[in-house]
């Protein structure tokens, strides 16, 4: 496999840094969060093995 792998990356957790999280879902959906509260919310709902986006598209199509 080549390219960018799906997953969650969090950086900027040190003192005097703005926390930033990037989530790349297996379906290709990307989200970025900046700030402690938003990073916490993203890490809470991001799942590496489970794609909520494909299920949502299936429900909308039905």
If you had to describe this structure to a student in words, what would you say it looks like?
With 62 residues, the chain is an alpha+beta fold. It has one domain (7-61). It has two helices and three strands, in the order βββαα. It has helices at 36-45, 52-61, and strands spanning 7-11, 20-24, 30-34. Strands 1-2-3 form a three-stranded antiparallel beta sheet, with helices on one face. A hairpin with a 5-residue loop joins strand 2 and strand 3.
Helix-residue proportion: 25-40%
The coarse overall form would be: globular
The overall pLDDT average reads 83
Number of strands: 3
Q: Which structural category do the helix and sheet elements fall into?
A: alpha+beta
Strand content: 15-25%
Uncertain parts: none
What topology emerges from the helices and strands here?
Layout lengths: L6 E5 L8 E5 L5 E5 L1 H10 L6 H10 L1
Antiparallel strand pairs: 1-2, 2-3
Give the gist of this structure.
This protein is of the alpha+beta class. The protein has two helices and three strands. A hairpin with a 5-residue loop joins strand 2 and strand 3 (30-34).
Please give a handful of descriptors for the protein shown.
62 residues; 2 helices; globular; single chain; three-stranded antiparallel beta sheet; 3 strands; alpha+beta; 32% helix
């Amino acid at each position: 496999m080549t390219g960018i792998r799906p997953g969650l990356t969090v950086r900027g957790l040190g003192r005097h840094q703005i926390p930033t999280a990037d989530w790349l879902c297996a379906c290709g959906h990307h989200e970025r969060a900046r700030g402690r509260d938003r990073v916490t919310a993203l890490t809470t709902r991001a799942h590496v093995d489970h794609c909520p986006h494909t299920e949502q598209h299936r429900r909308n199509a039905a």
